[in-house]
């Protein structure tokens, strides 16, 4: 690997006096099991919905699967060494449910747990705080066959699994996230079908969202009972939702999408209720008959922190008659009951995902959660960008990604200045990996992965981030 302490290719750090983050700010990077581990059949691991989905023709770009991915399962000690060289204070990873509890019920698989025990020990040995996510989308296939997240029993199975992981790792892992981005699991998995398991039923998506949150609440109760000292939270992906114009119709479109994207999860988890307007918007989709007495109390079991993943903003407009303006695109079917809302392209710079780059949206998002929902410590548990990378003379100079991180870290610092209790930031991602339906065609990593040789090359952004961590801050602009 090249020298991670080499000066950054772009001198962003050296413009003006430094801005500093609070002492103890938790600087990290994140990954997820199915995106990096590979070793899909090793040590008793059985298929998850993502194994099935990616092996189904036409589901992922190029038919890519996570069978090998970054081969992190076999290269873990080297990868942890790389994290240490970058100076990471924390590493956020997810546990593969079908690796540690094949089939999703019954006894733990000792061989699967052993991998995470070794990972955690390796991290601690390098002074890196492990941050464990229990569910980053890899539902064991037999649980999907039994109904998946739209089925209530899946929530109970998730709590059992959480207990099993807590029994094995609770003595060494302090930070726990139950779910990663339940919106994606529910609305991409069961609404649009763009993600595993690829089902397309709005009512199922809403039920899945509820049972994901129920599983979260039950898991928090189990973890709290066995590890009272643990820091427990959930990670939600949030978007500011802005109306395209001042018209009341566009404002209403923004309200609807905000309800589905953000308040669907924030309100039950942090307030113990579903928003009334959301329930009215979904009236043609579901009567919420799946919500039982006591569910919302379980879902709103007190937490220690909230994790927020931030990537971009949604700008939306009301349905229009006739020909669509070119900048408008129809929302995909991941918005049950609001499929006719238009998403608007503003023409601002975008990443390789076509996601608009909007750093002020991070400030808005953090301020909103703090102002409207909670005094709990907040963490940016993911933030990052895909860009096309090129290896030149063994180096990857990812100026665009570096600038993205830089602008969003400035936004994070501004939020702290405005009183938001932001305690840490995790770059997505440590390394290039399997980007779900996009396969390996989108690179989010600070570390380049050559998938043929599995060689890792820290990009300019990685060297820059190492320096940010070392200084606990950046230069003012
Ligand atoms: O790669 C994903 C990750 O798994 C969840 N959050 C968004 C990332 C980029 O799409």
UniProtKB/TrEMBL annotation:
- Write down the EC number: 3.2.1.21
Residues annotated as binding substrate: 35, 136, 180, 311, 428, 435-436
> Which reactions is this enzyme annotated as catalysing?
Hydrolysis of terminal, non-reducing beta-D-glucosyl residues with release of beta-D-glucose
PANTHER family this protein is in? GLYCOSYL HYDROLASE (PTHR10353), LP05116P (PTHR10353:SF36)
Instruction: Name the enzyme group at the top EC level.
Output: hydrolase
PROSITE patterns, sorted? GLYCOSYL_HYDROL_F1_2
Q: Which domain of life is it from?
A: Bacteria
Question: What keywords is this UniProt entry annotated with?
Answer: Carbohydrate metabolism, Cellulose degradation, Glycosidase, Hydrolase, Polysaccharide degradation
- Record GO terms (molecular function): beta-glucosidase activity
In the UniProt record, does the keyword Hydrolase occur?
A: yes
Task: Using the record, list the residue span of the signal peptide; answer none if the entry has no such feature.
Answer: none
Protein name per Swiss-Prot or TrEMBL? Beta-glucosidase
Q: Give the family from UniProt.
A: Belongs to the glycosyl hydrolase 1 family.
Transcription found in the keyword field: no
Q: Which GO terms describe its biological process?
A: cellulose catabolic process
Q: Which residues form the active site?
A: 181, 382
GO-annotated cellular components: cytosol
User: By its UniProt entry, which Gene3D superfamilies does this protein fall under?
Assistant: Glycosidases
């Amino acid at each position: 690997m090249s020298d991670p302490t080499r000066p950054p290719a772009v001198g962003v750090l050296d413009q003006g006096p430094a801005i500093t983050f609070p002492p103890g700010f938790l600087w990290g990077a994140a990954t997820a099991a199915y995106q990096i581990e590979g070793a899909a059949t090793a040590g008793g691991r059985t298929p998850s919905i993502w194994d099935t989905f990616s092996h189904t023709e036409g589901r992922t770009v190029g038919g890519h699967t996570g069978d090998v991915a970054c081969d992190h399962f076999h290269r873990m000690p080297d990868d942890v060494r790389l994290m240490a060289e970058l100076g990471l204070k924390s590493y956020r990873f997810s546990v593969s449910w079908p690796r540690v509890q094949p089939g999703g019920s019954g006894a733990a698989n000792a061989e699967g747990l052993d991998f995470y025990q070794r990972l955690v020990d390796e991290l601690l040995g390098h002074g890196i705080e492990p941050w464990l996510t229990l569910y980053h989308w890899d539902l064991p296939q037999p649980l999907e066959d039994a109904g998946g997240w739209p089925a209530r029993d899946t929530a109970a199975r998730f709590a059992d699994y959480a207990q099993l992981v807590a029994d094995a790792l609770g003595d060494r892992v302090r930070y726990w996230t139950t779910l990663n981005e339940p919106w994606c699991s529910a609305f991409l998995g069961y609404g649009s079908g763009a993600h595993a398991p690829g089902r397309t039923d709005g009512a199922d998506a809403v039920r899945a969202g509820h049972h994901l949150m129920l599983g979260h609440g039950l898991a928090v109760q189990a973890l709290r009972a066995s590890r009272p000292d643990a820091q427990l939270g959930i990670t939600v992906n949030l978007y500011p939702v802005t109306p395209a114009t001042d018209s009341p119709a566009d404002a209403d479109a923004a309200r609807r999408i905000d309800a589905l994207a953000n308040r669907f999860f924030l309100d039950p988890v942090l307030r113990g209720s579903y928003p009334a307007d959301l329930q009215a918007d979904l009236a043609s989709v579901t009567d919420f008959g799946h919500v039982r007495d006591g569910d919302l109390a379980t879902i709103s079991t007190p937490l220690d922190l909230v994790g927020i993943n931030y990537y971009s903003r949604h700008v939306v407009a009301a349905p229009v008659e006739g020909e669509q303006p070119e900048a408008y695109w129809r929302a995909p079917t991941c918005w049950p009951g609001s499929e006719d809302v238009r998403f608007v392209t503003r023409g601002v710079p975008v990443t390789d995902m076509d996601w608009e780059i909007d750093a002020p949206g991070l400030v808005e998002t953090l301020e909103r959660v703090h102002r409207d929902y909670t005094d709990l410590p907040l963490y940016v548990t993911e933030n990052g960008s895909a860009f096309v990378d090129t290896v030149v003379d063994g180096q990857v100079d990812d100026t665009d990604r570096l600038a993205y991180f830089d602008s969003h870290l400035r936004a994070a610092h501004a939020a702290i200045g405005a009183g938001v209790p932001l305690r840490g930031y995790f770059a997505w991602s440590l390394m290039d990996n399997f980007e779900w339906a996009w396969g390996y065609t989108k690179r989010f990593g600070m570390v380049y992965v050559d998938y043929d040789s599995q060689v890792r090359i820290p990009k300019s952004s990685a060297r820059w981030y190492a320096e940010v961590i070392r200084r606990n801050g950046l230069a003012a602009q």
